[in-house]
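Subject: PilD-dependent protein PddA

B.,
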Amino acid sequence: MRRGLITKAGHKSGFTLIELLVVISIIALLMAILMPALGKAREQAQRVVCKSNIKQVGTAMNLYSMDNEDKFASMSWQSGDYWFQKISSYIGDDDDSEFKGDRVKVMLCPSAEEHYAPTDVPPSKLRNYFYPEMPGGTIKADENWNWRGNQGSYGLNNWLTSDYQEWEKQFGKERFYRKWSELEGRVPLVGDSIWVGAFPDGENYVPTEPETRRIQISGDFDQQMRRFSIDRHNMNINLAFSDLSVESVELEDLWSLQWNKLTKIRRDVEIEKR
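Prediction pasted inline below.
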């Protein structure tokens, strides 16, 4: 069997250094062309999964309302009574008294990272990483929220509440939707967020660029939209609406949505892409 061509000088022929460099250059060029395409395909697949998750969460909220006298699975700070725990039995959890992020996968966006406290933080300050609404608490825009050991990627439109007087005193009860039947038009239900819920409004602060860094979760009314205006899906987030549709919404358009009964609609918002 011939193992190679023999030259007149009696040596086997092979690739020259120049030929090897040409081959390596071609491979590098092909990789440079293919990698962005593969990255876009991966992001597109993650966005599709995220939309499917949010669709299931929105549907679960509707089913909960149908079974509970038209009331919302609204937010509460009582352990075991958070909105995501109330709907857990409708999205695959076999025990609605507990919510486990590793069991209810539809609450986790594949584009978001798991959120754990860093190992170099003193125990006395760990609460700032697990309770970021507290003074000094922070979270990265591309992380899941972590609330009492429960992780998730999606936040509730907190203007949907059945009965929470503390919020009514703080923001004005005339803004709230109390029952599903009160929803008019296309009201956002739930979507990509860095916290369990928010009170967005067109009057809220507009960032000059999407939130990507580690930020503090402020309870101020003016800062509520920051929890949703995150660059998780290429300057978009996924939102479920009261008609049970799910859309990819550009960050700039968040200020033009009907978040509450008295929302100030803004269509002049511009956010610079990073």
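Residues 17-256 form one domain.

T.
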